[in-house]
Amino acid sequence: CRMEADGTVTWVKDATGLGLGTMAALAVGPGGTLYVASVDQQNTLVARLAPDGTLLDTWPMTGVGRISDIAVNASGSVAIAAACVDATADLNGTTVINPYIQYNLLLASFDPAGTLEHHLFVLDGTCPRPSVELDDAGNAYFSADMSIPEDVGPFTVNGVEWVYGQYLIKMDGDGPITWLNAPTSGTTLGAAACGTGRELVLCADGGVWQGGSTRGNVDWGNGVQKTEENPAEQLYFRSVDADGQTQRMVIGAGDNF
What we know:
Blueprint: E1 2-3, E2 9-11, E3 22-28, E4 34-39, E5 44-49, E6 55-72, E7 78-91, E8 94-97, E9 104-110, E10 116-123, E11 131-134, E12 140-146, E13 150-152, E14 155-157, E15 165-171, E16 177-181, E17 184-194, E18 200-202, E19 208-221, E20 224-226, E21 234-240, E22 246-251
Antiparallel strand pairs: 1-2, 3-4, 4-5, 5-6, 6-7, 7-8, 7-9, 9-10, 11-12, 12-15, 13-14, 15-16, 17-19, 18-19, 19-20, 19-21, 21-22
């Protein structure tokens, strides 16, 4: 549906009437075009809808089990965050080989016409729900929970230190993974997990805000630490600059929240 700023609902569409499955992610592109991820747990697609809800076209993602997030920048370039991809997948006409036939994650970027530009597969021990943001320079920011040690492009994360773990990466507009940011336990055990849903937001001065839950003592890097020993789950938000350095963070139990 579409709700105007004054609260008026101007249209409602039934996904099945558009020939789509379960809606899993939504982004708004240039001119108000809607980009929707439709999921059936075996094959997924990205559907483009006009501002009035009329279906424009679809980009099939055959062999992709789930798209959990989608991002569009001002030029109409698109990035998706996905999981549970088959050994061979067709990303809107481009065939890719997945080296990890077990649980896996996928980050992929497309030009405004829907042609695949860059992609990255990551081995994982589950099928989490990663998130993605895409800035106007074409840089993609991708965050995901982790359950095992993982190679993420040229970087390695060591896996869970206490209960769970997570990481954030930047894929340059030309394709290389330029940095990885993964919080670790501080002076005592700690853990941090990504939020559910859209938990990445672009910062106006570059980089992203990222949110989730944390417990225990966590070292976020760059001298930023969560020192509370509270073992209970706490909401957090942190900002990470375009160079991958944590700049500041707030937690639900903190005075600065």
